Amino acid sequence: MPKGEKLSRLAAELADRLELPAGTAGVMRLTLLGGGRALVENHRGIALCTRERVEVRTGAGLVRIDGEALSLDALDREALLVTGRILSLELL
Amino acid sequence: MRAAEFMRGSVRAEISGVEPERCLNALTLSGIAFREAVSEDAFTLRLSLDARDAAEAARIAERSQCALRLLRESGVPAVRRRLRRRAALLAAAGLCFALLAAGSLFAWEIDVVGEESVTEGEIRRALAACGVYPGSFWPGWDADAVCNRLLLELPELSWAGLSVSGSRAEVRVRERIEKPPIVSEEPPGGLFARSTGIIERMEVLAGAPLVSEGEAVVEGEALVTGELPSPVGETRYVRAQAKVTARTWHELSACAPLEYSALSEAGTSMRWALEICGRRVNFFFGSSQTPPGCGKIITEYPLRLEGVFTLPLTLIRERVLRYDAAPAAADTEALTAELSEQLLTELRRRLDGGEVLNYSVSAAESGGALYVTLRAECREEIAVYRPATGS
After folding, report:
1. Cβ A84 vs Cβ A71: under 8 Å
2. What is the rounded CA–CA span in Å between residue A88 and residue B216?
3. Selection from B184, B189, B183 nearest residue B239 by Cα
């Protein structure tokens, strides 16, 4: 397991024990809005960006979003928004 | 594009390289916000970012072993840059704006609202006498003085208000309500029958009845007299008042020709004119009067933005329609129905609040005309006042 992923799991574990919201510990949060928008918070960058697939690095691994006419509508250090026709989501 | 983005200015850029995603991550880490990132192929991405970040983004792309190429610019900074090179266009726009601003200081449209019995023309003439007419300089108006003068010019008005919005002035008026007479000033007199009929009901409020319920009366017969003899003094004269309801019979006739001239369109022509500050400039030769045997449809296109500004320019389109008249036979049934309807309307007008109990219609053709006769049984008030002679 990579070092970053270990740290992320540790932070999640700690937040869980202290009964803190998961978001405060920098845990990745993925929100699917209908079938056309996916919001990824606490990401660690883009691994791949094509019209059919977007891969996002997170503390919990790689999030793969497959679909049609995908685009990155907004991106900053905290979150990114993928729009298009989303067909599947995978956590690798 | 959102308003804020438009104001800041935005660029569409293309990032190409072996791994354009690396460039996206580098941009994010540098705090450069971008949007609408779309992949063109495995080595090319297109995205939008603020115009002020374009140079920094190009440097970051170079560091990420990618190339950033600007595709197009949009928003206020780009428009401003483009306009800087078009001085004549800018000057023309400025001149238009100045003309518009100067034009809005004159009232090009005056609306009159609230008139009932006083005509709009009378009010407009009175306003013109007060200095309020199309093309007048409205900042020079004194609204209170204009309204006061308008009330003096037109005593039928009880209130007037003047407001200006852009180059449109609105004059609101209220008319004076005449006080109704409380006491009848009519001289003494009696009531007479206006139609022949049988009296069904009679309520005498003043005067002495001369007939009674169930009696038949003929047109012009006295029903109630205003002369009241007194056994102890002189005869008193009053204005007779009574409600006399009677059953009456009416017969009305109307005729119409069975042949009429049917008009058929024989051609149209179009002509244009321009009205500048109330003066008309024709773009055609000859008179602007409608030629005989023709109709004219006038459409006006004023240069204005409703509620914002009005300019003293109106484009006028006149469509002149030529007609040919040909004799045609009228539809007898339709004509009978139309005449019957008109006769009924006329009968109801004559009854003045009375009711039609039943009626029959007969039609006959004679001498190229259709004669329609309406016979009706009605119930109506038949008493009409007539002043006493020599009183």
Report:
1. yes
2. 99
3. B189
In terms of DSSP bridges, do strands B259-276 and B383-387 run parallel, antiparallel, or are they unpaired?
unpaired
| Structural tokens at position B257 | 């020709």
**Residues comprising chain B, all counted:** 391
B226: tokens are 């205003």
Is the minimum CB–CB distance between B111 and chain A shorter than 8 Å?
Answer: no
Please report, for the domain that includes residue B50, its CATH number: 3.30.70.260
Check which CATH number belongs to the domain holding B169 and give it: 3.10.20.310
Report yes or no on whether pTM surpasses 0.90: no
Domain residues for B26? 2-81
ipTM of predicted complex: 0.71
d(CA A50, CA B45): 8
- Ramachandran class of B291: left when φ > 0, alpha when ψ lies in -120 to 50, beta otherwise: beta
| Rounded Cα distance, B317 and B296, in Å | 10
Does one domain contain both B9 and B74? Answer: yes
**Which residue, among B364, B353, B184, has the nearest Cα to B258 in the 3D structure?**
B364
Window 10-29 of A: residues touching B by CB (8 A cutoff) are: none
Chain A hits for B15, CB-CB cut-off 8 Å, are: none
* Residues B286-301: tens digit of each pLDDT: 777 887 878 889 999 9
The Cα B23–Cα B40 span in angstroms is 15
